[in-house]
Amino acid sequence: MPARSMCDCFRLFRDAAGVTLLCLATVCLAQSAREKSAHPRRASVQPNEVSGAAASAEVSEQSGSANAPPRPASAPTPMSSAELASELSGVKDNSLLIANKNINGPLILDATQRPITPITFKVEFRDCEFTDDVVVRKVDFGQSVTFQRVKFDKQLNLERIHVKGDLQLENVQAGGLIKLNQSQVDGDVRIKDPAATGLQVETLTANNLIVSLGKSSFSTLDFVHLTAGRLSLSAASAIAEINQLDLSNVSLKETLVLQNLDVQGVTAEGLTVAKHMMFLPATTIRKRLDLSSAEIAGFEWRFAEPVQFPEKLNINGAVFGSIVIVRVPSIGAAKSANEASGLRADRTDYGLAFLERAEYYEPAYSLYESSLKTRGQSDKADAVYFAMRDRRRYTEFRDASTHWQKTVAGFNYVIGFGHKWLFGYGREWVYPLIWSVLFVIAGAFIFRTERMQKVDEESPRSFSPIWYSLDIFVPVLSLGIAKDWHPRQEHRLLQFYSKFLSLIGLIFISAMIGALTGSLK
Questions:
Q1: Percent of the chain residues topping a pLDDT of 70
Q2: Backbone dihedral region for residue 120 (phi beyond 0: left; psi -120 to 50: alpha; all else: beta)
Q3: Tens of pLDDT, residues 339-348
Q4: Which of 281, 189, 168, 184 is nearest to 235 (CA)?
Q5: Among 4, 33, 286, 501, which residue carries the largest CB count within 10 Å?
C-alpha cells in the first residue's frame, strides 16, 4: 500500500512538471513573436557589411529624421588587402558591401597567375580609400560592381573582366589613369564625376557607356575599339576641358552624344555610328577633328554661339548619311525677338562651310548634295555642287607635281572656269541668259544700218540692229529681218560674226533650257 502511494505521487509530480514546462515554452514563443513584429527585417537577403561603423551609419540614415542635422562621418577603419581578398572569396550571400574602409597594401586579383573563383554576388565599395595599386585581371563578376566615393591613391586597373550586371564608378578619384581595358559588361558602364588624369577604356564591350564629367580637366579620354549601343560624354554643371579625345574604331549601334565639352583634339578614325552623332551646345573642338574613314548615318552639330570649326579637319574616306550644322538659341538665355530674328535671317550653309574647312574630299560633297536634294533644298544642293567643282579645279592644279601634270591641270582649270561662268555648270539658267543678252546687245552695235543691205529692194521691211541680232541669235523666232537683210560684201567680218552668233545662240539657249528643265544636272 505504501509503495502504491509513492508511485501515484511520482506520477503526479511528473505531470505537474510537464505542464509547467509547456507553459514556459508558450510564453517564450509569444515573446519572440512580439519582438519580431516590433523589429522587421530590411531585406530578405542581408549583405555582408564588413565595416561595423558603416552599418551603424546606414541604420542611422534610415531611422533618422529628414530634418535632423547630419552626423559627422566616422574615421575609416583600417583593413589589409589580404583581408579584403578573403572577404571577396568567402561571401556566401547575395551581396557584399565594403564601406568606410582604409585598405592598405596592393590588391592584385589576377586570374592569369592563380585561379580565382567567379564572384557571383553584387560587390559595392563605398567611402573607401585604397592606398596602393588595385589590379583586377580576368575575373568574372556575376552581378553589378559599384565604386562610390572611392579614392585610389595610385592606379585602378580593370583588365579583361566580365561583369554580368552594371559597372558604376561614381565620384572616384585616382592618382593616375582609370583603366578599363579588354573587358565585357553586359549592362551599362556609368562613370560619374571622376577625378583622374584621364580615362583609358579600350576594347570594351558594353550595353551603353555613359560618362558624366565634373569640373576636373582631363589630359586624355581614350575609348579606342569601344563596342556599345550608345556613348554619351557630357558635363552637367560646367564646361569640361579635355586635351585629347580618342574615338578611333568605336562602333555604336545607336547614338554618340558630346555636350558641354571644350576639346583640343578629337581622333575618330574608323568611327561607326549607326544612327546619330550629335555635338550639342556648348561643345567646342579647337585644334583638330579627324573623321577619316568614319561611317556616320547622321552628323549633327549645334552651336549656341557663333560657329567655330576646328583649325584642322580631316574627312578623307568618311561616309555621311546627312550633315546638319545649325545655330540654336543660347542655353538658359531668354529668346528675345532680336535673337530669334537674327537666327531666321542667317542663311549661311554651315554644312558647306564644314566641308570647305576640311581637306578636299569629293564624295563628302556629293553625299551632302544628295541629302539636301532629299530634303527638298535644291538651291543649297546646287551651291554645294558649285563649291565642289571649284575646289576640284583648284586642288587638281595645286597637287600637280610634274610639268605635264601642271599643263593638263591648267587646261582643265581654264575649261572648268569657263564652264562655270558661261553655263553655270549646267545648274543655273541665269548664266547663259546673261551671256545671251550680252551677245544680242553686242550684235546691235556691230550690225549698223550703213553696213547692211537689202536682199530684195522691194521689201518694205525696215532694218533694226537689235531685232536683226535677236533674229540671228534665236533662229526659231523667224522675225524675217535676217531674210531681208544681210551684211554688205565689203564687210565680210560681219558675215562671219552672223554665223558665229547663230551658233552661240544655239549653244546658250540649249544650256539655258537644260538648266531650267534639270536635264543637265
A1: 80
A2: alpha
A3: 666 666 667 8
A4: 281
A5: 501
Q: How many CB atoms lie within 10 A of CB 225?
A: 17
Take residue 379 and report the three cell numbers written for it. Answer: 538651291
The answer to whether the peptide bond before residue 282 is cis (omega within 30 degrees of 0) is: yes
User: Residue with C-alpha cell 560619374?
Assistant: 192
* Dist CA 186 CA 205 (whole Å): 8
Q: Report the 3 state secondary structure along 233-259.
A: EEECCCCEEEEEEECCCCEECCEEEEE
Of 365, 395, 364, the C-alpha closest to 381 is 365
Rounded distance, CA 95 to CA 331, Å?
A: 43
Only one residue has cell 549583405, namely 47
3-state helix, strand, coil in the chain (%, to 5): 40, 30, 35
- Grid cell locating 508: 546658250
- From CA 278, how far away is CA 303, in angstroms rounded? 11
Res. 29 pLDDT band, cuts 50 70 90:
low
Sorted by sequence, the CB contacts under 8 Å of residue 50 that are 6+ apart come out as 79, 84, 87, 96, 97, 98, 99, 101
* Residue 180 CB-density burial (10 A; 0-12 exposed, 13-18 middle, 19+ buried): buried
Locus of grid cell 567643282: 389
Q: In what order do the strands lie in the sheet with 77-80?
A: 77-80, 101-104, 129-130, 151-152, 173-174
Residue that is written with C-alpha cell 578619384 in the block:
173
- Cα gap 311→8, rounded to integer Å: 112
**Amino acid found at 438:** L
Q: Please, is 463 exposed, middle or buried when counting C-beta atoms within 10 Å of its C-beta (0-12, 13-18, 19+)?
A: middle
Cβ contact 461:471 at 8 Å: no
pLDDT digits (tens, 9 = 90+) for 439-481: 999 988 888 877 888 777 666 677 788 888 888 888 777 777 7
**8 Å CB contact between 327 and 280:** no
What are the CA-CA distances from residue 456 to residues 426, 468, 483 (Å)?
42, 16, 9
Closest by Cα among 285, 287, 288, 219 to 258: 285
Nearest-angstrom CA–CA distance, 175 and 202: 19
**Position 22 pLDDT exceeds 90:** no
- Rounded to two decimals, what is the model's pTM? 0.75
Q: Which amino acid is at 19?
A: V
Residue owning grid cell 568605336: 250
Q: Which residues sit opposite 122 in a β-bridge?
A: 95
Contacts with 356 (C-beta within 8 Å, 6 or more apart), sequence order: 387, 391
Q: How far is CA 285 from CA 187, 194, 313, 358, in A?
A: 31, 21, 10, 14
Q: What is the sign of the dihedral through the CA atoms of 431, 437, 443 and 446? A: negative
